[in-house]
Protein: Common central domain-containing protein
Amino acid sequence: MLLKTLIALCTVFTNLAISVLASGSGRRADTSTCSPETAAVRQEWGDMTDPQRTAYIDAVLCLMSTPSVYSPGVVPGAKSHFDDFMAVHINNTLTIHISGIFLPWHREFVRLYEQALQQKCIGTGPGGRRSLRALSSTAAPPPSPATVLTMRHRVLTRLPKAFTSPRGTGGGCVTGGPFVNHTINFGPFSTNDAFEGILPANWQDYTPHCFVRDLNDYVANMYGNTTIVDALLAASTIAEFQGNMTGYPATLAGLGPHPGIHISLGWALQDFFASPGDPAFYLHHGMVDRTWALWQEMDPENRQTALNGTASLGNPVTSPVVTLDTVVEWGPLGPAKTVGELMDIMSGEYCYRYV
Ligand SMILES: *[C@@H]1O[C@H](CO)[C@@H](O)[C@H](O)[C@H]1NC(C)=O
Ligand SMILES: *[C@@H]1O[C@H](CO)[C@@H](O)[C@H](O)[C@H]1NC(C)=O
Ligand SMILES: *[C@@H]1O[C@H](CO)[C@@H](O)[C@H](O)[C@H]1NC(C)=O
Ligand SMILES: *[C@@H]1O[C@H](CO)[C@@H](O)[C@H](O)[C@H]1NC(C)=O
Ligand SMILES: *[C@@H]1O[C@H](CO)[C@@H](O)[C@H](O)[C@H]1NC(C)=O
Ligand SMILES: [Cu+2]
Structure:
């Protein structure tokens, strides 16, 4: 199921794996030493070899069996370091989406995940390669027929626009592939809560349920196609780029590729709060980051520092306007940073590029 999904994604928007296996160092770098030659390269999933894909998946499985860094009892649902990323995303959902910090926050979030995979699961330091499982894609059981829980004609009424689509391919619990035993330990949460500004009470609770997907090619092709990405890259302002990327305010016909691709994979990735429970989250957000970085690179002088929006979901005027000095946080995953530190993927602590 997973490989099938990823192959399906190769034709659309979300086809980027992060640079766990990248050439280049990806180390902490300063502006003077980061160059295209030294930068880590984030590869496209479709261009990776089978052994590279297997190694990437193994690193993700390793993170799923690496202990949580929360103090015991603080976030009972966080059973692994993979879950820690979900927890931080859930806890920050009401500020990091449809806001001026959406793009920079998720840029750093993906980098922290990439770093965790490298340091805890692929690291070459003391301890060496830890607990990588030899789980080859060919050993995965065949996918079972679709069961229940499709998103058939599902209507998300509280999104900026009501949205309907043809049904997906089926869905239900993932019954094959390398993530067959992956359990979602938080939620599920209601998207409506997000649009009403509610962080669900007791979101930290341990509420294990199966990992559900429902692939929907119609949605993926409709809202994540090349035409849309090309149009985004031609945006003249950050307001237009960000607005059409996120479909809010809904300028683009339909959803925009960010929510569109979330919805195209089914329930786990649709969960507005807990979407990082689907490992595909990080491939999708790699592509969101790539599109933003490409757009910035076309006119660095004007775009490297361009921001638009306030610090809360929906950009209410009662929330502070986001500037380069706005401080953003990732809980126990990494230190707080200013937005200004997150604007250039080839300076400061960043030194990576996309192909
Ligand atoms: C949730 O985020 C807030 C900051 O918005 C922070 O003060 C709090 O400690 C976080 N809670 C957990 C459990 O990480
Ligand atoms: C999934 O869990 C079942 C039951 O614990 C186990 O028999 C099976 O080997 C696991 N599969 C994988 C791929 O880890
Ligand atoms: C690409 O997306 C646009 C906007 O959603 C849509 O109008 C168009 O039909 C899509 N093209 C294809 C080939 O799906
Ligand atoms: C944003 O969406 C509007 C409405 O669909 C479209 O006219 C415009 O070209 C789009 N701009 C970009 C940069 O995608
Ligand atoms: C974002 O851009 C829009 C369109 O240019 C503008 O009306 C709005 O005031 C900007 N918001 C902020 C907070 O800068
Ligand atoms: Cu998010």
Remarks:
- The beta strands are 40-42, 183-184, 209-210, 327-328, 337-338, 352-354.
- The radius of gyration is 19 Å.
- The CA atoms of residues 112 and 333 lie 7 Å apart.
- The chain has twelve helices and six strands.
